[in-house]
Amino acid sequence: MSKTHTVAVIAGDGIGPEVVREGLRVLERVAAIEGFAVKPTHYPFGAEHYLATREIFPDRAFEEVRRHDAILLGAIGDPRIEVGLLEFGIIAKMRFELDLYVNLRPVRLYAEHLCPLKDILPRDVDFVVVRENTEDAYAGMRGFFKKGTPDEVATQEIIFTRKGVERVIRYAFELARRRDKRKKLTLIDKANAVRAMDLWTRTFAEVGAEYPDIARDHQYIDAACMYVVRNPRDYDTVVTSNMFGDIFTDLSAMIQGGLGVAASGNIHPGRAGLFEPIHGSAPKYTGRNVANPIATVMAVSMMLDYLGETSASARVEQAVERLLVSKRLPSLGTDSGFGTTQIGDLVIEELAAAPAR
Ligand SMILES: NC(=O)c1ccc[n+]([C@@H]2O[C@H](COP(=O)([O-])OP(=O)(O)OC[C@H]3O[C@@H](n4cnc5c(N)ncnc54)[C@H](O)[C@@H]3O)[C@@H](O)[C@H]2O)c1
C-alpha cells in the first residue's frame, strides 16, 4: 500500500489562496506520478476568517495542525487589520510553539535571464541560508512607555540564548557537510556593534572545532549585503540570526529572480515542518490571477524532501528548472504575461517530462 502524508494547509490572505491552489495541484500530480498519497486538510485562518469570527488561530485547531506530517502556508497579512496581529497570531505562533528553530532558505539561480546582476550564471548562485527562527527581536519582548506623548519610549529586546544559537549553528554545520559542495559555512552577524552577538562568535568557533572538514568564514551583515551582490559565488552555506536572516534572504531572493521563486522551510527535525513562499500576501494583486505560484511550488518541493519523498522533490525542482531555462517566462513578477493558473499548468506539463534524479 502506498504511503499517505498528511498536510495541514493554511492558504491565508491575499494571493495566498491562488498560489497554494497551484502548489497543491503540483503536489497531487507528482504524488500520482511517484506513487504516494497526500491528504490535505484545509484551515480557514487569515483575515476573512478573523473579520467574520474574531478568531485568529484557536488552540484546538493548532493542536490539530501540529499533528500533521507537514504544514503548507500561503501568506498572512491584510491591510484591513492591525499590522502584525495575524502575522504574529498565525505564523509566529507556529514558529514559536512548534519551536521551528531553523528557517531554511535555498538560493539557486535556475536561468541567467532571471538574475538582475550582469554576468552572473546559474552555476554562480547556489547557496543556502540557515536563519535562526525563534529568538532575536522577534521573541516579542517589547513595550511602549508614555505612548503617544513627546516623552514616549519604545523598547524591543534582542535576545539570544546559548541553546538557541548552538542548535542552529550545529544544524548549519551538518547541512554544509550534507550538501558536500564547497564545504564552507559563513557566519553573518554584527558582533562589532551588537556586542551580544559575541555569543554567536564564540559558539561558532566552539561548534566549528567539531567540524574540521568545514571551512569557517565570517562577515558582518552590512558587508554581507555588499558581497552577496558583488560575488554571490562566494557562498555555500550561511548561518545568521533571525533579523539579519530576514533581510539577507529577501536580498538573496532578488539574485535568484525575485519573490516569485523564493521558498522557505521552518524546521525542527522530528516535528511537523512548515513550508511557505517567502513572499507575503501582496494585497493589491489579490484575485487578479497574476501572482507567480513558483515560490509555493518550490515550497512544496522542500516539503517533499522533508517528508522523505526525495525523488518527488527533485522531480518538482527539475520541472521548475526546465520551465525557467526554457525562457518562456520572461520574469517571475506579476508582469510575466502568464496567469497564476497558466504557470501552474506549465509546471505540471514539465513534471511528466522531468526524470527523477
Ligand atoms: N510569511 C508571510 O505570510 C508574510 C511574509 C511577508 C509579508 N507578509 C505580509 O504580507 C503583506 C504584504 O507585505 P509586502 O507588500 O511587504 O510584501 P509582499 O511579499 O506581499 O509583496 C511585495 C511585492 O512583491 C511582489 N510579489 C510578492 N509575491 C509575488 C508573487 N507570488 N508573484 C509575483 N510578485 C510577487 C509584488 O510586486 C508585491 O507587491 C503584509 O501584511 C505583510 O505583513 C506576510
In terms of topology, how is this protein built?
Layout: E1 4-12, H1 16-34, E2 37-43, H2 47-53, H3 59-65, E3 70-75, H4 85-97, E4 102-108, E5 126-132, E6 142-145, E7 153-156, H5 162-179, E8 184-189, H6 198-208, E9 215-220, H7 221-230, E10 237-240, H8 242-255, E11 263-267, E12 273-277, H9 294-306, H10 310-325, H11 340-353
Parallel strand pairs: 1-2, 1-3, 3-12, 5-10, 8-9, 8-10
Antiparallel strand pairs: 4-5, 4-11, 6-7, 11-12
The structure holds nicotinamide-adenine-dinucleotide.
Structural notes for this entry:
The protein is α/β, with parallel strands linked by helices and 357 residues long. Helix content is 40%, strand content 20%. The chain is built from eleven helices and twelve strands. It has helices spanning 16-34, 47-53, 59-65, 85-97, 162-179, 198-208, 221-230, 242-255, 294-306, 310-325, 340-353, and strands at residues 4-12, 37-43, 70-75, 102-108, 126-132, 142-145, 153-156, 184-189, 215-220, 237-240, 263-267, 273-277. The strands form two sheets. The protein has a ten-stranded mixed β-sheet with strand order 2-1-3-12-11-4-5-10-8-9, sandwiched between helices. Strand 6 (142-145) and strand 7 form a beta hairpin. Helix 1 crosses helix 9 (294-306), helix 5 (162-179) crosses helix 6 and helix 7 (221-230) runs parallel beside helix 8. It is globular and about 50 Å long. The mean pLDDT is 96. It binds nicotinamide-adenine-dinucleotide. The site of nicotinamide-adenine-dinucleotide has 20 residues, from helix 4.
